[in-house]
Amino acid sequence: MSKNISAVKNPEKPVKLILNGADITSLKDLRENVNTDEMLNYFISKDLQLWLTQHYYDNEAAAIEKLSIDTPNCLQKICKILGIAYSSAQKLSQEEMAKLDAKKKVIQSFTTDPHILSEIDLVAMSQEELASLLSRGEKTIYLCNNTFSLPLRVPNVTYTGIGNVTVESPFTEKQYARAGIKINGVNLPTDTDSETDSIALEIAMSNGYDAFEEKHTPFSTPFYHKIKGIKYFNMYHLSFNSTAASKFFTSKHECEQTRDQIIRKAYNDAARYLSTGSSKSISKEAAQTYSALIANVFSADVLNQLKSLSNITHTSSTYKKLENLVSKCYKNLLSQFENELNESRDYYALYDFNYFINQADIEEHDYRISEEGFLHILETVFTDSIQYTISSLFDVINEIENDLNDHAATFFNTAAAIYSDYYTEIIELLDVIGKELDAIKEQESLVDYLTRMCVSKVS
């Protein structure tokens, strides 16, 4: 039974740690008497966490409590939390120890920073060592006195240079930052060319960078952040009479009919989601969701202020196009979503119905005692000694669900792209209306912002 961490600060039941035969009374003692096998045993038994809590190392206890023995690089993460150099915690051969000592001497020739020296296992002295650290998922890496290639495709990493570090085919600091990469102590170029900038931006966007503000006006930015929303996605569950799966039927025909009816109902329900003529159609569901995003942003007050602003900036015709896109967003989006389902009807079709029927066999259960003769006939005619069940019914319904949800996932990805194109049209019209206008202020509502822009243009 695991120990209750919240109730361990009890002086009557102190937890003792003994590493390498030494009684551990502080983190300093622990760091000086590292034994990974014993430390992992204390971790698994929760004694390590209890000891930390009882000694009021609350931050360390909380961090270690989030780990489990199945956590990737568990020992390495425990060492990092406790301030132990991972390399010193490992059992190394004499050859490995010699290499580690040589590595320490090289690093010490460039820095005496105790923090870096305590994290020697995070120092890369070659591209191979860098690749190993990145493959391990490290987010803090030190580069030592060599030339490295730093991949943009691995985001959220902080690199710090030690000694004379150069980067092959480097990007600028801004380009790395876009990709979620921070670099310290390394000289990077300040100028860019269109080719590398395009490559860097594409990779950064694949890492989650949003380049909107670099391509559009400050005026359209608050609208964009409100209407872009999130990619809508839904998964579907098909209900059915589950009691039939465990029912014993005395008639094979009745058993087959029940099977066919249940599977047909589930199949038809699934097909309705992928049909444009059904109230359950995923095209309607997506259109309702995305049009609601637009309607919530472009309220009557916002549209009125936009209209006034367009009159002032002489962009009334642009406003009329925007108003049309907003007012007809449900109808327009539904039309495009339905076109997707109709034009790719063959792709969105479920597997053939008979395929699913054939997956659910009718099983016969013969409970007759007599194997032949008159009694055998009597049992057959006058008793329910032969019964039938539907096999694999749950599996068949689940397979129909999976088929439906696979198609739905494809559709929702396409619908998100269609919606992105649609709101991009709106954004481009806003760029025209609000060209050269100031940005919105923090905590300012859209209505207040538009009112302020109207006043500023008049004055």
Describe what you observe in this structure.
The protein is of the alpha/beta class. 55% of the residues lie in helices and 8% in strands. The chain contains 23 helices and 10 strands. The chain has helices spanning 27-32, 36-44, 47-54, 58-65, 74-82, 86-89, 94-108, 114-117, 127-135, 173-178, 194-206, 212-215, 221-227, 252-273, 282-297, 300-312, 316-327, 329-343, 345-348, 353-357, 373-382, 393-433, 446-458; strands at residues 17-19, 22-24, 123-124, 140-144, 147-148, 157-162, 166-167, 181-184, 362-366, 386-390. It has a 4-stranded parallel β-sheet with strand order 3-4-6-8. The protein has a two-stranded antiparallel sheet with strand order 1-2. A two-stranded parallel sheet has the order 5-7. Strand 3 (123-124), helix 9 and strand 4 form a beta-alpha-beta unit. Helix 15 (282-297) packs antiparallel against helix 18 (329-343) and helix 18 (329-343) packs across helix 22. The longest helix is centred in the last third of the chain and has 41 residues, at 393-433. It is flat. The termini are far apart. The model is unreliable at 1-8 (pLDDT under 50).
